[in-house]
């Protein structure tokens, strides 16, 4: 009996050891197998991304970020140059990005209202200054109400889903900004696109929306198209919308504050102030260049956005210092249009000299976005690099930012540029243009 028990214990111990090592072996095998599979997947992704980067570099579309070491202004310092350079590619249309009155207003608001709110608006993120700014924006645009967003990208991303359903329709210009395209994708409304600024095709799409029995029809367009400097034919859009019982929405990011006689944008330019249903725009370009966006327009639209606008409900409030500085901007714009007039003069000077030199300059002659069409992506990149060596900061734009074969250097004028600085930039364009065979 004793021998039997001893042998049984020995067999049990041997079996236990054997089973333990089999489990360890299986676990090790499983871990190695998983690691191998994951490593293979990571290698596949790495190979794919590396190939994409190589392809972009070979095509001349790879984007390298230049590092600025000063505040944003007409003249800046960058790491790539020992000497200051003239900046001709900022959205700083009114030259307010480093204006001392705005900086002072931001500092004052930091002291009075703090750095941030750590909250969204409907919980505990609404201060008195947020309401003051929304009122000031509505008064500036001659609309009923305004709602602030973290950016205009968020504003465009939140409008369509909140106000439109499957029974409605969106009719959109084919070259609308990416934020509008993404916002439309998020909603369930029927989608129609019309050829860029083509009023005949817009009418056809409105008819198609009627044929689809759309209840609410919303025509949406950029007021000014940022890559081309084109100004939307807003009168035609409004007339067709009225004819077919549609609403009109415009993105005014590249018009608010500086386009139109007093800077009130595309509606003012066409004499349609107070006649646009929904306007979206930004605080991050001409209005100080910081951050933040908004929707302004019909009160019923704004009310629903406060209840259902997802980027509004789930994003922190615009920082107090940005709000305080923005209030100062609207105060300045209401008091004087001097900077708007200076910008118009600078725009006319640059555009006229560049056209006389033989460059193909796109866009509306009165708008400070002046794209210089070069077509070839590699030429655009090389052109911009050579311009930097001449002390002129510009950037080449190519696919996917613009269509293939439509590469360009997008020049943006500012009220802060002097006439001497503009002439210096044009002279550099002419010299390099001849060097690269773009002009003769």
TrEMBL record:
It catalyses: glycine + acetyl-CoA = (2S)-2-amino-3-oxobutanoate + CoA. Its cofactor is pyridoxal 5'-phosphate. Coiled coil: none annotated. Its EC number is 2.3.1.29. The keyword RNA-binding does not apply. One of its GO terms (cellular component) is mitochondrion. Residues 84-429 form the Aminotransferase class I/classII large domain. The chain crosses the membrane at residues 19-38. Pfam families: Aminotran_1_2. InterPro entries: 2am3keto_CoA_ligase, Aminotransferase_I/II_large, AON_synthase_class-II, PyrdxlP-dep_Trfase, PyrdxlP-dep_Trfase_major, PyrdxlP-dep_Trfase_small. Keywords: Acyltransferase, Membrane, Pyridoxal phosphate, Transferase, Transmembrane, Transmembrane helix. The keyword Acyltransferase applies. GO terms for biological process: L-threonine catabolic process. One of its GO terms (molecular function) is pyridoxal phosphate binding. Belongs to the class-II pyridoxal-phosphate-dependent aminotransferase family. This is 2-amino-3-ketobutyrate coenzyme A ligase, mitochondrial. It comes from Stygiella incarcerata.
């Amino acid at each position: 009996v004793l021998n039997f028990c001893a042998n049984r214990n020995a067999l049990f111990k041997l079996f236990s050891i054997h089973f333990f090592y089999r489990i360890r072996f299986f676990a090790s095998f499983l871990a190695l197998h998983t690691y191998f599979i994951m490593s293979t997947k990571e290698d596949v992704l790495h190979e794919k991304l590396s190939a994409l980067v190589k392809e972009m570099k070979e095509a001349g579309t790879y984007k390298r970020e230049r590092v600025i070491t000063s505040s944003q202004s007409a003249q800046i310092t960058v790491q790539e140059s020992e000497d200051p350079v003239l900046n001709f590619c900022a959205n700083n249309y009114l030259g307010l990005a480093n204006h001392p009155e705005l900086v002072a207003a931001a500092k004052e608001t930091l002291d009075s209202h703090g750095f941030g709110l750590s909250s969204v608006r409907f919980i505990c993120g609404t201060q008195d200054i947020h309401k003051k700014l929304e009122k000031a924006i509505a008064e500036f645009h001659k609309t009923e109400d305004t709602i602030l967003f973290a950016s205009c990208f968020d504003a465009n991303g939140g409008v369509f889903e909140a106000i439109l359903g499957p029974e409605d329709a969106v009719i959109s210009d084919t070259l609308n900004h990416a934020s509008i395209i993404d916002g439309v994708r998020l909603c369930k409304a029927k989608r129609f696109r019309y050829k860029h600024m083509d009023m005949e095709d817009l009418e056809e799409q409105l008819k198609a929306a009627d044929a689809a029995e759309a209840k609410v029809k919303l025509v949406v367009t950029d007021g000014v198209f940022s890559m081309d400097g084109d100004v939307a034919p807003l009168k035609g859009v409004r007339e067709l919308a009225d004819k077919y019982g549609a609403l009109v929405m415009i993105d005014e990011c590249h018009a608010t504050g500086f386009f139109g006689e007093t800077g009130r944008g595309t509606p003012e330019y066409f004499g349609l102030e107070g006649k646009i249903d929904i306007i979206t725009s930004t605080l991050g370009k001409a209005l100080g260049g910081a951050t933040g966006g908004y929707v302004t327009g019909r009160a019923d639209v704004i009310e629903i956005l406060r209840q259902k606008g997802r980027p509004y409900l789930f994003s922190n409030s615009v920082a107090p210092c940005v709000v305080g500085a923005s209030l100062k901007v609207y105060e300045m714009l209401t008091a004087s249009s001097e900077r708007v007039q200076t910008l118009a003069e600078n725009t006319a000077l640059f555009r006229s000299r560049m056209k006389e030199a033989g460059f193909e300059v796109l866009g509306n002659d009165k708008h400070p976005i002046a794209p210089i069409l070069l077509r070839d992506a590699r030429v655009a990149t090389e052109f911009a690099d050579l311009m930097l060596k001449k002390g002129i900061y510009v950037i080449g734009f190519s696919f996917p930012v613009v269509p293939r074969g439509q590469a360009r250097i997008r020049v943006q004028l500012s009220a802060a540029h002097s006439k001497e600085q503009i002439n210096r930039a044009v002279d550099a364009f002419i010299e390099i243009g001849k060097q690269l065979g773009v002009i003769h």
